[in-house]
């Protein structure tokens, strides 16, 4: 299906203009809408590519740049540099504030600013991103080419956790989580009203530690969900620009995502 694309803006939760990428079929019909939430790298060409692929299947997609407020600091280059420092820390210590603080002593000013925003102030950033995503949902829902309230959401890594969180706040009809963390509080899973699919990498210890309690909560509250764990795949297996890309897992996940949205966004 032929698509049109635009670099546009929407009003964030406080009225600030935030950047986004919009993609939609060229026909004049109304289509379901899907929010595509980026990884920790921000809105880049890889995420734009995902948004275009989903749009080509008959959906209106919007991929917001959740880092617009911090665009002079949270550039992809700065994030890459800072994350190399973080990855040098043992996985079990990456959420320890004292360990992070010590690692920051040897960082450049830009690297320190990135780590402060993405790690030290993560809770505050998370809350802002959730509010902005709800504003993005309103923007998508009001777009003339979208079937009102027939919305889905998907996200990757950081974006996967945000997608999971959004599903507990607004009644998205379909949510696809790629290796994302559980919503907080966990009991908010009780609020999910739409269909849920979670796709995980087999070699992703930190994220996968949360799967059992998520499943327990989903079963407790009688939610409709699907879970797939790709044995041998690493975190971010869907991103073809990263060393962890796994072609077999990515192809299967893509087919599952397409089928899921086509079944439930009607």
Automatic annotation (TrEMBL):
Pfam families linked to this entry: DLH (PF01738)
Gene Ontology MF, one: hydrolase activity
Domain of life: Archaea
Alphabetical list of SUPFAM superfamilies matching this protein: alpha/beta-Hydrolases
InterPro entries assigned to the protein according to its UniProt record, in alphabetical order: AB_hydrolase_fold, Dienelactn_hydro, Dienelactone_hydrolase-like
Limits of the Dienelactone hydrolase domain: 20-264
PANTHER family membership: ALPHA_BETA-HYDROLASES SUPERFAMILY PROTEIN, CARBOXYMETHYLENEBUTENOLIDASE-RELATED
Name by which UniProt lists this protein: Dienelactone hydrolase domain-containing protein
């Amino acid at each position: 299906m032929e698509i049109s694309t635009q670099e546009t803006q929407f009003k964030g939760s406080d009225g600030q203009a935030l950047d986004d990428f919009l993609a939609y079929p060229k026909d004049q019909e109304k289509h379901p809408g899907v929010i595509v939430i980026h990884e920790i790298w921000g809105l880049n060409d890889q995420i734009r590519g995902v948004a275009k692929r989903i749009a080509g299947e008959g959906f209106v997609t919007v991929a917001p740049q959740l880092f617009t407020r911090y665009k002079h600091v949270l550039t992809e280059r700065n994030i890459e540099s800072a994350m190399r420092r973080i990855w040098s820390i043992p996985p079990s210590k990456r959420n320890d504030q004292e360990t992070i603080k010590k690692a920051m002593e040897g960082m450049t000013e830009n690297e320190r600013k990135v780590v402060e925003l993405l790690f030290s102030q993560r809770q505050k950033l998370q809350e802002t991103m959730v509010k902005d995503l709800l504003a993005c949902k309103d923007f998508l829902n009001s777009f003339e080419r979208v079937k009102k309230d027939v919305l889905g959401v998907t996200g990757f890594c950081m974006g996967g956790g945000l997608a999971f969180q959004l599903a507990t706040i607004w009644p998205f009809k379909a949510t696809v989580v790629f290796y994302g963390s559980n919503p907080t509080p966990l009991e908010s899973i009780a609020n999910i009203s739409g269909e849920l699919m979670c796709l995980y990498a087999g070699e992703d210890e930190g994220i996968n530690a949360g799967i059992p309690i998520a499943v327990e909560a989903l079963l407790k509250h009688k939610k409709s969900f699907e879970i797939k764990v790709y044995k041998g795949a690493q975190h971010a297996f869907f991103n073809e620009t990263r060393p962890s890309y796994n072609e077999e897992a990515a192809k299967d996940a893509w087919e599952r995502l397409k089928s899921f949205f086509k079944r439930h966004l009607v």
